[in-house]
Write a structure and sequence with these properties.
It is a single chain. By secondary structure, the protein is of the alpha/beta class. The chain contains five helices and six strands; from the N terminus they run H-H-E-H-E-H-E-E-E-H-E. It has helices at 52-55, 69-72, 93-99, 108-113, 144-152; strands at residues 89-92, 104-106, 123-126, 135-139, 141-142, 156-159. The strands form two sheets. Strands 1-3-5 form a three-stranded parallel beta sheet. The mean pLDDT is 86.
Length: 160
């Protein structure tokens, strides 16, 4: 007896095979080719009649003769070296006086614990306000006025 392809299928019929699958009728319609002669969708090819938009492509920036946005806005002068810019979180001496009324050790980690700065960023102490006596401040940067006021009040300013 010859080997039958439908041996394993129930009812003696051939099983469904992947190459038998086809899309449902009407599921795929052919792409409309516009601008290819006077037949279907020829002539104006969906562009309407006349005018600059019917004839060729125009710039997306074209605003119908109005001064375009890129020419209305002012040119930007200068140069920003933001790749090498160092930005600090600043804390004034007046704020340190409120956080440490009795003096003590001031570090960036301790300032972050008290909510004065964000953790893991550089801290700079500025000289606005009055310095409390006995402050031992450790930070990444100081202003000249801050160092002067801290040392005048009997504290120390140590740069990291």
């Amino acid at each position: 007896m010859a080997k039958d392809e439908s041996a394993g299928a129930p009812g003696g019929q051939a099983g469904l095979k992947i190459h038998h699958l086809r899309p449902a009728p009407g599921a795929h319609t052919k792409r409309t080719r516009v601008g290819r002669g006077e037949a279907s969708k020829g002539k104006t090819a969906g562009r309407g009649t006349k005018g600059s938009k019917a004839r060729t492509t125009i710039s997306p920036a074209f605003e119908g003769g109005q001064m375009p946005l890129h020419r209305r806005l002012p040119k930007l002068d200068g140069f920003s070296n933001s790749l090498f810019k160092i930005s600090y979180q600043v804390v004034n001496l007046g704020r340190l006086g409120k956080l440490y009324p009795d003096g003590g050790d001031v570090t960036p980690e301790d300032l972050a614990d008290r909510g004065a700065v964000r953790r893991g960023e550089l801290v700079k102490i500025l000289g606005t306000g009055e310095a409390v006596s006995g402050l031992r401040v450790t930070a990444h940067a100081f202003s000249a006025a801050a160092i002067e006021k801290i040392t005048a009040a009997g504290g120390t300013a140590t740069q990291l």
